[in-house]
Write a structure and sequence with these properties.
The structure holds three protein chains of three kinds. Chain A is α/β, with parallel strands linked by helices. Chain A contains 17 helices and eight strands. In chain A, the strands form two sheets. Chain A has a four-stranded parallel β-sheet with strand order 2-1-3-4. A four-stranded parallel β-sheet of chain A has the order 6-5-7-8, sandwiched between helices. In chain A, helix 8 packs parallel to helix 10. The radius of gyration of chain A is 20 Å and the shape is globular. Chain A starts with 8 loop residues before the first helix and ends with a helix. In chain B, the strands form two sheets. In chain B, strands 2-1-3-4 form a four-stranded parallel β-sheet, sandwiched between helices. In chain B, strands 6-5-7-8 form a four-stranded parallel β-sheet, with helices on both faces. Chain B contains 16 helices and eight strands. Chain B is an alpha/beta fold. Chain B has one domain. Chain C is an alpha/beta fold. Chain C folds into two domains: about 120 residues, Nucleotidyltransferase, domain 5; about 140 residues, Nucleotidyltransferase, domain 5. The two termini of chain C are about 40 Å apart. Classes of the chains: A alpha/beta, B alpha/beta, C alpha/beta. At the A-C interface, helix 17 of A face helix 3 and strand 8 of C.
Chain lengths: ~400, ~450, ~280
Amino acid sequence: MSAENSTGGLDIVERYYQGYGSRARELKKQGKQIMGYLCAFTPVEIITAAGFVPFRIKGDVNEPITKADTEMETIVCPLVRSWFDMSLKGKYEFLDGIVIPHACDSISTTYNVWKNTLNLPYSHLINMPHSTDEPSLKFYKALLNTFRTSLSKFTSKEISDQSINQAIRLYNQNRAKVRELYELRKTSPPLISGAEVAKLLIVSVSIPVEEANQLIDSVIKEVKQRGAVPAAKPARIMVVGAEVDDVTFIDLIEDSGAWVVADDLCPGAREFFDDVDVTADPIDGIVERYLRKIKCGRTFREKKGDYEDYLEERFGHIGRFIKDFGVDGVVLYIYKYCDPYGFEVPAMKSYIESVGAPVLYLEDEYSMSTIGRLRTRIQAFLELIGSK
Amino acid sequence: MTEEKKPEERKKRRTATEAASKVGPMVKAALKENLRAKEEGRPIAYSFIFSGYDEIIRAMDIVPAWTENYAGVCGVKRDAQRFLEKAESENFSRSLCTYALCGLGFDSWREELGEMPPDPPWGGQARPTVMLGSGQIICDPRYKWYQAVQHYMPDVPVYVGGLPYPPYEDDYDYRDVQDYYVKYIVEELRDLVAFLEKHTDRKMDWDRLAEAVDISDRTWNMISEAYDLRKAVPCPMGTGDAMNTMVPMTFMMGTQEAYDFFKDLYDELKIKIANKEGVIPDEKYRLLWGGGLPSWFALTDFNYFNSKGAVFPAEVTYRLVEPVYELDLPKVSDPLEHLAWRWVKYWSYRHDKARKRPGSNPDVERLIEYIEDYKIDGVVMHEAFSCRSWHPGLIWQLNQLKRVYRDIPSLILESDIVDISSYNEADTRARIDAFIDTLEAVKSQ
Amino acid sequence: MKSQYFAGVDIGSTMTKVVIMDQATITSVIGPTGPEHRKLANRVMEEALAKANLSFDEITYVVATGYGRINVPFADKQITEISCHARGVGHLLPAARTVIDIGGQDSKGIKLKDGRAVDFVMNDKCAAGTGRFLEVTAEELGVSLEDMGRLSLEAKNRVEISNTCTVFAAQEVVARLSEGVALPDILAGLHEAIATRIYGMVRRLKIEREVALTGGGAKNIGLVKAMEAKLGFPALLPPEPLLTGAIGAALLGKDIVREAAEKGETLKVSERRLTEASIFT
C-alpha cells in the first residue's frame, strides 16, 4: 500500500527507520546531548526536562549477534543482546549517557555490563519496584527524585518543575496523536498498515518529542488523503508481546495476507495509550503512569476479587482492543528467554480465548533464521481463522 | 515389547563433613513434616529463599514450603523431566527458570488429578494456603511464578512485596538513599504480616519475632566464622558440602536448629584443621566457585574435581550472609527495621571497598577477597541457561577480574539447575580436565 | 457430466508426494525430495499424469503444500500442511480429533473440529522430535532405517536416553553399544525419546481421541507403538500415511472450486507452466 504523495511524513519515517540514529547524530553535531535508554519504562519526561534528547536503543533482526557474546551471556533475552550488540558495534556512538530502568531481569541484571563496557560519561539504573501498592509508589517517587538530582548534577543545571511539566505536556500530546493515528486502523480495510505504524512509532522514540509530534501529524494528514483501497478483506490481526522494535515480524504477517490493525506492544499501544496526569508535584503524575497505568508483565498487580476479575484487570485492555479494532485473531509473539511474558502465556491465552478470539502463540529468537518457520505458522493460523 | 528399564548406575556422592551428610535426611524429614502439617490443617506458605521473611514466618508458626528446594530435590533425584514437560505442555517456555517450570508442572498436574502426581519425589509438595513472592531485584520468577501457578489454584492468595537494595553507582553513594530503601522495606514487611494475619489463622508474636531475628543474626555470624575456617590449608570443606549446608542457611534461618547446625559444623571444622584433615589427602589446586547456581543433578562433579586434586574452599553461591557485627547496623528496637537495615547493609557491604579500586565493583571485589583470603588458584563459573538472576554478568565479572586484578585461570561450565537434558557429562569432564591442565601449567611456572 | 480432476502436491523436506483425484484418489506418486526435486516438482507431476493417463490441462485445480510449496509455479494455490493434513485426515479418518504428523525434519500436532484444523503446534527446529533423529542414530549404529522400528520391538530392557539433543544422543547411543547393551534395547530407548518429545509438544493442544498418526514416522511400527504407549490408547493410521497431506491438498482444491461455482465467482488459477522453478522466483 503506497501513499500517493510520498514526500511527506512516511518518507521521513522510512529514512529514519533505515538509518536509525541518523537524526540523533545530526542533532549531536548541532550541539545537543543525547541520552540513550532502554525500554518503555524509562521516564523520558525527566530526561527531556534535563535538556537531553532521549534516544531509544534499538536492535536489528538482520544483524547477527556477535560482539555482545564476549561480555554478555547468551541466556539473556535476545532483544537485549541485540541492543547491546549494536551498541558495542558503535551504531550509537553519539550517546552521552544511558538510563536503564529495572524493567525485567534481562535488562536489570545486565546493567553492570552495559555500564562498564560502554564507558559512557553517565549511567543510571532506576530501580523501579514490581508492585503497585502505596509504599511502592512512594519508593518509586524517591527513586525518581534521586534520578532527577543525579541528572542535575551531571548537567550542572537544576531541573525545574516547570521544565518537567512542559515535557509532560509534550509527551501527552505525543500520546494523543498516536491514539488519533490508531483510529485510522479501525476502518475496514485500515487506512494505514501495521508496518507503517510500527516504523513510525519505532522512529518516534529516537527523535525529540516535538519532532515526533510533527512527524505523526504529517503522517496522519498524508494517510487521510489516501484514496480508497481495494477491499481484499484479509484477516485483521492483533499482535501482543513485550517489545517489538523491528518491522520484520509485522511485515511477515502483512505479507501473508492479513492486516495488523492493533497491538499490545512497545513501541505500540502499551507505550502510548496512557497519559501522565497533571499533578502538583509533576513527579507524582509520572510515578502513577509508569508504575500503575502501564500494563506490562513486569508489573505485578494484586488480585482483588475473584480470578476472572483478576484476568480482566490484567488483560481487559486486550479484550477492548479486540472489540474496538474488529480483531479476527491474536498473535502472541514472545521472545525466548523472556521472563515477564513467558510466565503470562497460559493466563493470557485463556483470557483472549475466553473473549472469543483465536490465539497463535509464537516463541521467537530475534534473528532472520526463523523467518521460514514463522511464515508457515502464520499462514496456517490465517488459514485456520479464515475457514471459520 | 519393552520391559522395565535398567536402574541408573551412578556413583554415590561423597561429602567431606558430617554436617553436610546430615542434610539429605533433614530435607526429606522436612518435606514429610510439611505433608503432615497439611493434614493437620496448619497453614503452609509457598516461599522463596533469602526473601527477608524467614523470621516472620517462623514467628507466626507458619510452615514454609520452599518451592525452589522441591525443584532442587527433583533435580537431584533426576526426576524433574516429567514436570518440566508438563509445564511445557501448558505453554510455558522451556527457557524459563527450571525451578519454576518444575514447580508449575508439578502443581498443575497435582491440581488436575486432585492428588499428588504418581510416585512423587519424597512424597511430593502439598497444596499451600498462601504463596509469598517477592518483588526484589533477585529475580523475575519471584513475582511471576506464583502468579502463574495461581492460574491452577485461583483461590490461593499471592503476596508480592518489594525488597530492593541500592545498586552500586558512580553518581551517588548508597548512604544517600538507604533511608528510603529501609523505610520501603519496613512498610512491605509490615504489609506481609498483615497479609498473613488476614489469610491464615495466625497472629504475629512480636516477641517471638525479635527472638528469631536475634537467632538469625547470631546464625549469620556463626556461618561466616565457620566458612572462614575453610581458609585453612588443607581445606576441610568444599563447595560440594556447601551445596548441602545451604539448606539450614536458607530453609531454617531464624531457628535454633539452624544455629546449632552451624555451631556443630564450626566445631567439626576446627577439629579437622587441628588434625590437618583436608577434603582430599593430596590437595593440589584451590578453586573458587565464583558464581552460578549448581547443577543439582550433577553434584558428583565436585567429587570429580576432587579426584583431580582440586578442592573448593570458597564459593559465592549460597554464601548469603556476612558477619552482622561488620555490617555497621544502627541500633533499632523494631525487628522489622533491623531486618531491613541488615538487608540493605548486606548488599552494600563491599561498596566502599570497590570504590578504592578503579574499574572494580562489589562482585569483583568479593572475588578478589576470596581469592586472596582462601589462597585461590583458579575460578570456576557455572552458567545455568534458565536463570537470568544470578547468571548474567558472570562473564563480565571474570573479564573484569582479570583486567583489574590479575590473569587467573578460569573455567566456565554451561548447563542448568534442574534440566538434565542440557548437561553432557563427557563434555563437562573434558572441560574440567583441560582446566586442571591449565592450573598445573600455571603452578609449575 | 464431465469429471473434474484435482491435484495435490506435497513437497516435504524428505519426500515429495503427488495425488490426483476426482471422487477418490486415482493415482499417487511418492519420491524422495532431493535438492533437485524441489526445483523439478513438475517432473513428479508429469509422472503422476502419465500414471493417470491425463494431460495437465485436464486438471481443474492444483494445490501445493509442504516445505517446498513455493517451488511449485504451476500450483493455483499454496496452502500450509496444517490445513492439508487436517482436511486429508478429516476425509480418511472422520473419527479423528487430533492429528500427529511425524515427518523427516519436522513434526506437527493438529486439533480438528468438523474436519478442519482449529489449533496446531509444530516442531521444525529441533531434530530430536523428527525422523531425522532416527536417521542420524541409524547411521551411527549401522542399522538400516527400515529395520529400526521392527528391531526396537524386540527389546527386553529399554534403555533411557537422557540427551535430547540429536548429536549428543548419537554419541550416547554409540557409547551404550560399546558397553555391550543390546541393540533392540537401545533402539527402544531412541523411539521412546522421540515419542516423548513429540508427545510433549502435542500435549499443548489438549489431546482428544481419536488420534491419527501420519507422515513417515507413522510407517515405523516401533514409533507407532511408542506413541501409543505415551497416549495410553491405540492410534488410527491412514492406509498410506505419507499421502494425507497431498490428499488433503487435492480436496481443498476441490472445495475451492465448488465454493467458487456456488458463489458464481470466476476461479483464480495460476498461469500454468510445467517448467522448472527458477532459482530467482
